[in-house]
Design brief:
One of its GO terms (molecular function) is alpha-L-fucosidase activity. Keywords: Glycosidase, Hydrolase, Signal. With 597 residues, this protein is of the alpha/beta class. The protein is built from 13 helices and 31 strands. It has 3 domains: 301 residues, Glycosidases (TIM Barrel), CATH 3.20.20; 91 residues, Immunoglobulin-like, CATH 2.60.40; 140 residues, Jelly Rolls, CATH 2.60.120. 21% of the residues lie in helices and 29% in strands. The strands form 7 sheets. The protein has an 8-stranded parallel beta sheet with strand order 8-7-6-5-2-11-10-9. Helix 12 crosses helix 13. 49% of the residues are buried. The N terminus is likely disordered. The structure holds ligand FHN. Ligand FHN binds next to loops.
Length: 597
């Protein structure tokens, strides 16, 4: 598949983050999984939409420890404040989630169109949100609540027909002297991680698998401390209890049942097999009182569609507070998402990746004989061009209605006339039913440029790479836990290291060419050139900032000139360094072509 072709070019992550998190990421829990046949993959592969819930003592703290407030990853507050384990444990005495209502949580998830729910049984803080015999540092023994919310939630989810699973941080445990991660309290100690696994992690995982009915997933996170052989042994002992329960790839050593991408990571191209993208609704996983940056319903709907268009599941996180209440915007916007799914769910559930690459108007998902066009950017002439849709078309309708749309087909595209009234500007789905042969998106290499949209954003991953030019994934964060993953073109030093974007320019006219890149001061001032149809746009690279473990990458959208397209059709846009440069030009994220109005 095309993704495999691209991934040959892709290099390993360059990590820019706080030292601790960078180290954690390097452990390589991302993207490792074997994707062997597994009974749980049947439900997982068609589910498409999961709900992640981070809930623990950190939810009671809400981003505040003593007089200090923290932003991002509220569940890391103990580590960030370097709170002594004994003192942090006292939070349990005031953790009394009387507002928790399992039936209401499950019903909300169901109404949001969620198909599976995964909740933190134990996060890195070490506190068990279930009744555990292994420790007294759990919700039943250590809090005034004295009840096991996980029992009720597991039952409520099953009543609603949702798959239920537990997140379990198997290695990091800041409460335990031998658990991973806490070096501020238990310093100068030679930690015995195996002892930790034997005395807490593995017995607790067994409790979860034995006491909460059939589980859909154990969502392991941030592995460490065990060899591959030991991890295998742990997995075997757990699988024996519930063979149909899926294990996330973050169990480590490539031994998971499906792939989990990094936090807030969406792969640039479709991926075969079972996988999941993980995003949080606002900027933190665990509740932070002062974090109000919630994704709107439109953002959730488009994110869900984008993940599905690449073949994966979206698991979206909500962080309830210490009383067990969800943030009001999470309730409201998930409800909105659910309403959208009632109308358009057919284009999400049970689909595979789209057969047409992303277009200026949106993305596609597919089922045998059907392609769903997720349209969220309308062409200003009402004509929706679908390049590469050349199979014999049987019908074109607005999904969920009997409204047929006029269409015409040529040798290499289908053009659909959109109705004057557009039902949902966030994303209206058109269903196209076809028969016969339809080329897969991997053969549709060109990227569309048209004057009927505000701009065409073309990711660098779509270029053809020459010489030493290659793509590389850069991971960095602007604040704690805010992971960004950018696939950029780099390595362009000599004119041989050119990259070429195959374009399908649909309309004549003038287009502004904008390069979106990061460039360290040492690389600034080097010369490059954009060429298209004999037109040349020379440019000098601009400095965007130093990139190191303390500074996130900074990108600039640098307009380098205007090109004129006389004749619509297939065109190649080339970017190359000129002779004499000593460094790579830049890390190019995307090119933007903007019709001049
Ligand atoms: O460190 C955790 C983080 O707190 C959160 O639980 C996320 C969710 O995917 N997992 C880890 C980092 O990737």
């Amino acid at each position: 598949m095309f993704h495999k072709m691209l991934s040959v070019l892709a290099c390993s992550c360059m990590l820019q983050a706080t030292a601790m998190q960078a180290q954690d990421m390097q452990q390589g829990w991302n993207k490792e999984a074997v994707n062997k046949p597994h009974p749980g993959l049947n439900w997982f592969s068609s589910a498409k939409f999961g709900l992640f819930i981070h809930w623990g003592l950190y939810s009671e703290l809400g981003g505040k420890w003593k007089d200090s407030s923290y932003y991002g990853s509220g569940e890391w507050i103990m580590q960030r404040a370097k709170a002594p384990a004994g003192e942090y444990a006292k939070v349990a005495a005031s953790f009394n989630p009387t507002g928790f209502n399992a039936a209401q949580w499950a019903a909300r998830a169901k109404a949001a169109g969620i198909k599976y729910l995964v909740i933190t049984a134990k996060h890195h803080e070490g506190f068990s949100m279930f009744d555990s015999r292994v420790t007294d540092f759990d919700i039943v023994d250590a809090t005034p609540y004295h009840k096991d919310p996980m029992k009720e939630l597991a039952d409520a989810c099953r009543k609603e027909g949702l798959q239920f699973g537990f997140y379990y941080s198997q290695f990091l445990d800041w409460h335990e002297p031998d658990g991973g991660g806490n070096n501020w309290d238990f310093k100068n100690r030679k930690k015995d991680y195996r002892q930790y696994y034997q005395s807490k992690s593995i017995p607790q995982l067994k409790e979860l698998l034995n006491n909460y009915g059939p589980l859909g997933i154990i969502w392991f996170d941030m592995p460490g401390g065990l060899s591959e052989q030991e991890t295998k042994q742990m997995i075997d002992s757990l699988k024996a209890i519930q063979p149909s329960c899926l294990f996330s790839s973050r169990v480590g050593h490539g031994l998971g049942d499906y792939i989990d991408f990094g936090d807030s990571e969406l792969p640039p191209t479709p991926i075969e097999g079972a996988w999941e993208s993980i995003y949080t609704h606002n900027d933190s996983w665990g509740y932070i009182r002062h974090d109000m940056n919630f994704k709107s319903p439109a953002e959730i709907i488009r994110l869900l569609s984008s993940v599905a268009s690449k073949g994966g599941n979206l698991m979206l996180n909500v962080g309830p507070d210490g009383k067990g209440e969800w943030p009001a915007y999470s309730i409201k916007y998930l409800e909105e998402t659910g309403k959208w799914l009632q109308q358009y769910g057919e284009s999400i559930y049970g689909t595979t990746h789209g057969i047409i690459p992303a277009q200026p108007w949106g993305v596609t998902t597919s089922k045998p004989g059907k392609v769903f066009l997720h349209v969220w950017q309308l062409p200003d002439n009402g004509q929706l061009r679908v390049p590469g849709l050349t199979a014999r078309i049987n019908s074109v309708t607005l999904l969920g209605t009997a409204i047929a749309l006029p269409w015409k087909q040529s040798a290499d595209e289908t053009v659909i006339t959109l109705p004057a009234e557009w039902p949902d500007k966030r994303n209206t789905v058109i269903q196209v039913e076809y028969s016969g042969q339809q080329p897969d998106w991997s053969q549709l290499r060109t990227q569309t440029v048209s004057k009927h949209y505000p701009q065409a954003n073309i990711p660098a991953i779509w270029a053809i790479y020459n010489g030493n030019a290659h793509t590389k994934q850069y991971t960095f964060s602007h604040y704690f836990g805010d992971w960004k993953h950018e696939n950029c073109a780099t390595g362009m030093v000599t004119p041989n290291d050119a990259i070429i974007f195959p374009l399908e320019v649909q309309d004549e006219g003038d287009y502004k060419v904008i390069l979106d890149y990061a460039c360290e001061p040492a690389s600034a001032g080097q010369q490059g050139i954009v060429t298209l149809l004999g037109q040349r746009l020379p440019f000098l690279t601009l400095a965007t900032g130093i990139q190191d473990s303390h500074r996130p990458m900074a990108f600039i959208q640098h307009p380098v000139g205007i090109i004129h397209i006389q004749e619509p059709g297939k065109q190649n846009l080339t970017i190359k360094p000129v002779e004499g440069n000593r460094q790579a030009l830049f890390q190019l994220k995307q090119i933007i072509l903007e019709p001049v109005k």
